[in-house]
């Protein structure tokens, strides 16, 4: 059993500390997605009869030559082949850094994700780059972003400080998604001296209307110390230098499963 206070430290920061974050995001990160990691866990407060397989995809950073629409489509097919009950997308679909040979816009990467299928649906959140690359949203200080509109046009709901109740085998559970914690960049043009998050953890969990377990989606794992015990499992992306993360396809299935696909997922609890 994995308790809330434990965490899997899958990738440390020592190796990445020698690499610029820009090169990592569009070079190393997409190239590390060639294998499947499978994990079985029993989150706290999880119903004994609820066996759930989750596939999570994070930090696609769509661009050429690293993460083309063709590759995203292939990874989507790979995700489907794992026969998940539920698929979650953990943000950062936009490339972000400039170290790319060509851009892959939302008109290309969103349709490449549209083939994802699971009985309990495909649910998504946004990452910091999905906000940072949208200059109109940066200026306005709010969305919807281009990325959100693209995902919804592809038939993929986006959870920003929202929650949805799902059910399997007579057992209910919630999937809650936070808005990004670094959504708005600092800049004179926008009148901001520091990053501003749009996440509302308290308001999001207030939408959970019963005692069924909660799976929380949050792009940055920085939120973990604030997550209450009411949440059984938190899934995050954003695997930068000092994060704990797993690049590739992570699959877990026991009472609960998390199969992480493309890109990277961070799965951690604060150590005390």
Distance between the termini: 18 Å
Mean pLDDT: 79
Radius of gyration: 17 Å
Number of strands: 15
Question: What gross morphology would you assign?
Answer: globular
CATH class: Alpha Beta
Query: Roughly what percent helix?
Result: 10-25%
Q: How many DSSP helices?
A: 7
Query: Which stretches are poorly predicted, pLDDT < 50 over at least 5 residues?
Result: 1-34, 241-272
CATH topology name = Purple Acid Phosphatase, chain A, domain 2
**Structural class by secondary-structure content:** alpha/beta
The CATH architecture can be named as 4-Layer Sandwich
Number of domains: 1
Reading the helices and strands in chain order gives HEEEEHEEHEHHHEEHEEEEEE
Biggest sheet, spatial arrangement of strands? 7-5-3-15-12
Main β-sheet description: 5 strands, mixed
The share of residues in extended strands comes to 15-25%
Summarize the structure.
The chain contains seven helices and 15 strands. It has 272 residues and is of the alpha/beta class.
Characterise this structure.
The protein has helices spanning 21-31, 69-81, 106-113, 128-132, 135-140, 146-153, 201-205; strands at residues 36-38, 40-41, 54-58, 63-64, 86-89, 102-103, 122-124, 162-168, 171-177, 214-217, 231-235, 246-247, 249-251, 256-257, 259-265. By secondary structure, the protein is an alpha/beta fold. It has a single domain (16-262), classed as 4-Layer Sandwich (Purple Acid Phosphatase, chain A, domain 2), CATH 3.60.21. A 5-stranded mixed beta sheet has the order 7-5-3-15-12. Strand 8 and strand 9 form a beta hairpin. Helix 2 packs parallel to helix 3 (106-113) and helix 3 runs parallel beside helix 6. The longest helix is centred in the N-terminal third of the chain and has 13 residues, at 69-81. Mean pLDDT is 79; it is low at 1-34 and 241-272.
